[in-house]
Write a structure and sequence with these properties.
The protein folds into 3 domains: 103 residues, Gyrase A, domain 2 (2-Layer Sandwich); 144 residues, Four Helix Bundle (Hemerythrin (Met), subunit A) (Up-down Bundle); 145 residues, P-loop containing nucleotide triphosphate hydrolases (Rossmann fold, 3-Layer(aba) Sandwich), CATH 3.40.50.300. It is α/β, with parallel strands linked by helices. It contains 15 helices and 13 strands.
């Protein structure tokens, strides 16, 4: 069935040197040549992957621009594609789109180019999701995770696991067809052994991917402590800039302040909370309650203490709140004589001089990412893919726990496992899920 020719702007809206308007579909070149004119150029002599300079008709006026043609199947979507490279500008790009609509194209839906690429076998579903990750990546770790998937490492790993399962299914079919010539017990042992290997591979991938949520969203770090111990100064020192207000007046920070910075490619989200203490000030009390709420959301807590003073009742009260939290005791003001007793899991710093700030950053990352992530390991930052792997691992455990399964039951279970793994690359995923994934793309992608 002939598909519509779609059009959209493929570059961000705004003023710039160049904007790109893209057409995709069987009639892309026909639509383009209704509008674009270059000396001696027509449909019979347009060469793919050549850049042509000419005039694009916009009614009574013309835009001088470049046109390039990608002939199917050698294009991103697997269809004929034409791109106009025009001068950057919101109104101009919109006018070019309107001209294409008038020449027979229709407006593309969000993600429709990538959806067509998937349906035409140009990309797998995992690669499509990784493209979203590349576009939205804010840290080096997240970008590297997406690039690994885009380069086919995940599809290759899943393909190898599915290939092993296909071999098992073939062996089980032979066993069921020729029961007199098959040692059933030995066959079951071999099947369970291969499943155990696949389960270990999936478990390893899940293990590395546990760190992916931090690569994607960052580590949430709450700074807590009583008033005037230097929480805001610690935050400013970690950020390398004066973001939080620092004064000698108690209760200056009355609301949570959130800022982020990168440390070795990992984003750290700092939340400077209001000092926790007993107060009659209504506004400050609200801030203190918010501080307590932030503790529940934090991956790790920095409990800031004044190293030049002993702990008091307020410090003890805060420490009780941190009973179930991962906590680093940050002993501040070490430029003064230390009176505070040694704390468990402490880091001595001076927010004033910057002493040991890098050591504190390292300790935050090391405590959350307990094991060093192999920089070459395949790490998933996509929740859907992570859940599919978890479901697959649970299916393997269910097979292993089945008491005396028959060969036909084993075959059915392995087919279900194969289907589940296939949801990652899209070779067994249903249309509703596919539509949902591509709807998350931006218009023009």
């Amino acid at each position: 069935m002939k598909e519509d020719t779609i059009v959209s702007i493929s570059t961000p809206l705004g003023k710039g040197a160049v904007a790109i308007v893209r057409l995709s579909g069987q009639d892309s070149l026909t639509v383009a040549l209704k509008l674009f004119h270059s000396k001696n150029l027509d449909a019979s002599n347009v060469q793919p992957r050549f850049m042509y300079f000419g005039q694009l008709s916009l009614g009574e006026v013309f835009e001088q621009c470049l046109m390039v043609y990608f002939k199917a199947p050698f294009s991103y979507t697997g269809q004929d594609i034409v791109e106009f490279q025009i001068h950057g500008g919101v109104l101009l790009a919109q006018k070019v789109v309107e001209a294409c609509l008038g020449a027979g194209a229709r407006m593309a839906e969000p993600g429709e180019y990538s959806k067509r690429a998937f349906l035409n076998g140009k990309i797998s579903l995992d690669k499509a999701e990784a493209i979203i990750g590349e576009i939205n990546a804010e840290t080096e770790g997240e970008l590297k995770s997406s690039l690994q998937v885009t380069n086919g490492r995940l599809a290759e790993a899943i393909g190898q696991q599915q290939s092993k399962l296909t071999t098992l299914l073939a062996e089980l079919e032979v066993g069921m067809d020729y029961p007199d010539e098959t040692e059933e017990a030995a066959l079951k042992t071999d099947v369970l052994s291969v499943l155990a290997d696949i389960g270990e591979e999936i478990l390893q991938l899940l293990k590395y991917s546990e760190s992916a949520k931090y690569l994607k969203n960052g580590i949430n770090v709450a700074l807590v402590g009583k008033t005037n111990v230097g929480k805001s100064s610690v935050m400013n020192a970690l950020l390398g800039e004066d973001r939080a207000i620092v004064t000698d007046i108690q209760g200056t920070t009355r609301d949570s302040i959130t800022e982020s910075f990168l440390h070795n490619g990992v984003k750290i989200n700092l939340i400077d909370t209001a000092g926790i203490r007993q107060t009659e000030d209504v506004v400050e009390s609200i801030g203190i309650e918010k501080s307590k709420q932030q503790l529940a959301l934090a991956d790790i807590v920095l409990f800031v203490l004044d190293g030049s003073a002993n702990k008091d009742a307020e410090d003890a009260q805060i420490e009780k709140l941190l009973d179930k939290q991962k906590t680093i005791f940050v002993v501040n003001k070490t430029d003064k004589t230390r009176l505070l007793a040694k704390q468990q899991n402490e880091v001595e710093i001076s927010a004033l001089s910057g002493k040991n700030i890098d050591a504190l950053k390292k300790k935050i990352v090391d405590m959350v990412l307990k094991e060093q992530v192999d920089p070459n390991a395949l790490v998933l930052s996509n929740e859907r893919q992570h859940q599919i792997l978890q479901d697959s691992h649970n299916q393997i455990k269910a097979i292993q726990s089945t008491s005396s399964p028959t060969l036909d039951v084993l075959s059915m279970q392995i087919k279900a496992l194969w289907q589940t793994l296939g949801k990652i690359t899209g070779n067994t995923e249903n249309e509703d899920i596919i539509n949902l994934i591509f709807s998350k793309f931006c218009l023009g992608k």
